Amino acid sequence: MSIEKQHGRRRAGGPSAAATSVLEAAPALQVALPSRRDAIRAEQRTRHSGLGGAVRQLSDLATAAGAGQKVGLALAVTGLALAVTVPSTSPAMANGEESLVPMQTSVVSADASASVSFARPSVGSDLDADGKLHQTLAATAAKVTPEAAKGVLAAPLDTLTPTSGFGQRINPLTGQLGENHTGQDYAATCGTAVHAAAGGTVTFAGWHQYGGGNRVVVDHGNGLSTSYNHLSSIEVKVGQKLERGDRLALSGTTGASTGCHLHFEVMVNDKTVDPLGWL
Question: What pTM does this model have?
Fold first, then answer.
């Protein structure tokens, strides 16, 4: 017995006459059978349609993102709208492949040596010199200790070169012994800028008849004032408000003077004291 007869089959001898006639009548006809992939995609589109499909899509996304990802759902009562919140770092499916969506960040940087502060400097700090002065003079200048007074006034010249100190000395004009020198003399060529030792109000600006020549006096409050003498010119007027370091005059040699210099005085309740105790 032949093999064909054992399996109950008979080998076809070729296409039948009817099939041959159909192919000859429509030679351009092509039959496209749906592939397995197309069938799966069609099933997924049907399965994911509608609200149930949206929930299933979200479930698939959560599964792809991993159990650690947080997914938020909110179903609005009206219209059953679906809102989904997915962290921007969670994986997303693109064309069947997993991809990572980068997180958008903003970086703010500052120089390592930068000092950031939102507080106003303390009234007693070195950043607020006049505040420190006012704190020192809170009661009255007469009660300020030497330790507290030291350094609260700024230098009246850019460079201080002492030539004659405060206290007893020989009068350089007359040669008389025992003259009370009421301030500190500093060398300065005529025309050198003279600055306010602290903020205050100008109380005198003019000629001083007792040897000071052109003179400016600034009141700093609570009994403390400073004077600037032998000036070649005055650049302020009585009542004018000054800030620490403002230029108020130019040095000179007017009045009882033997040469260009600045005679600088510090007065506590109108009594002269040694300026070195305050500079």
Answer: 0.54
